[in-house]
Amino acid sequence: MKRTKTGNPHIFLxxxxxxxxxxxxxxxxxxxxxxxxxxxxxxGASSFEIKAHPHSFRHERVYxxxxxxxxxxxxxxxxxxxxxxxxxxxxxxxxxxxAERLKDVK
Length: 106
What we know:
mainly alpha, 2 domains, flat
């Protein structure tokens, strides 16, 4: 799967076109989180914080695919899982959304 002009299959790349390590991504997210806290505190917010970590992207991808109507087996293949047993953990938001929609059905 070719995703970039450099031919590197990784999504997140450094300025030089190399893959970012897990530590690199954690550092970037920490800088974003701290900058957001500083900005929001300056604007009067008392306890605003982004709770993001690299695995958040995986959860969001699974959630988006499930919302788009992909089956659990299709989602598992897309994110590199061998089976569907873990997809249920990621899909809690979908179940919560479904429960909310069911409240509206009479």
